[in-house]
Structure formats: C-alpha cells, structure tokens
Amino acid sequence: MVGRKIQFSLLLVAGLLSACSTGGNGDIETLQEARRVWNEKGAENYQMNYRATCFCGFIEPVVIEVRSDTVSAVLHPETMETYMIEFSGEMRPVMEVLPGYFKTVDQLFELAEDASKDAAVFEAEYDPDFGYPTLIYVDGNASTSDDEYTYTLSALQF
To answer: What's the confidence (pLDDT) of residue 151?
Structure first.
C-alpha cells in the first residue's frame, strides 16, 4: 500500500511539473527563428485565413487583409465581402464591433513570445517557407478552466 502511495505521489508530481512546461513546438528558439524568417520577407501587405478559438465570443473563420502592417479588412471566406455580424439589433462590420480582436502576424508573434514565457502550456507551429505562425495554442493557467485560446492561420498571400 505504501508503495502505491509513493507511485501515485510521483505520478502526481510529474504531472504537475509537465503542466508548467511548454508543450509541442513552443520553444523560444524556434519562435525566434520563425520570426527571423518572417521579418526577412518584409511583409506589410498580405491576406490570410484566420481563426481565433477561445471562450471569448466570435470564433468564425475569416480572411484578414493587412495593409501597412495594420488589419484593414475582415472578410467572409465564402463571399470575400466585409464580414458582418448582428450587434445591437443591426448588421455591422465585425472589425468595428470587435476592434483589436483580429491580429497581424507581427502582433501574433508578440503574443506568442509573451505566452512562451508565462503560459502553463504554449504550443506553436510555423510555416516553413514564410515563418508566420500557422498555429498558436496557449493555456495561460493549467488550473483555470476556459482560459485557453488558439490561433490558426493559413493560405497567406502577399
């Protein structure tokens, strides 16, 4: 019985320690290399498929247009028209209703760098040719429910 308690205690400690580390490809060196590749492209104008998944409201996939390193438009992926949502009884552009919700690649690199230092779990994947993050997963606190968020990017075009 004592042996089982020790085994359980060791498993519990190992689980707690693993919850405090980054997972997947979340190391800072990989992030910095991907950012270097991205910065070499000098991209300030591009379009990409974008999806943020969290317990924070709007989670639909969209197409984002970035001009002069600023999100300039959020488009519906099927119609390529401004993405509209209902707000206070009327249809309004999602970018107007949720300012700051949609991020540029540079903003996502900042978010990823911060998460790689502080989050309980940080995972990221990067495009091998252009360096931009194709996946960012963050669980800020392993003991807090519903604080996780994921960004998924694809089909970036200059």
So the answer is: 94
Q: Contact 21/118 with Cβ under 8 angstroms?
A: no
**Which of 39, 101, 38 lies closest to 64, judged by CA?**
101
Helices (H), the chain: 2-19, 28-41, 94-97, 105-118
Phi, psi angles (nearest 5°) of residue 26: -100, 20
Is residue 84 within 8 A of residue 94, CB to CB? The reply is yes
Which tokens belong to 94? 């999602």
Q: What is the DSSP code (8-state) at residue 82? A: B
Domain boundaries, the chain: 2-157
pTM of model > 0.85: no
Low-confidence ranges of the chain (pLDDT < 50): 2, 4-24
- Which residues lie closer than 8 Å to 59 by C-beta, 6 or more apart? 51, 52, 53
Classify 2-157 by CATH class.
mainly beta
Backbone angles phi, psi at 121, to 5 degrees: -135, 130
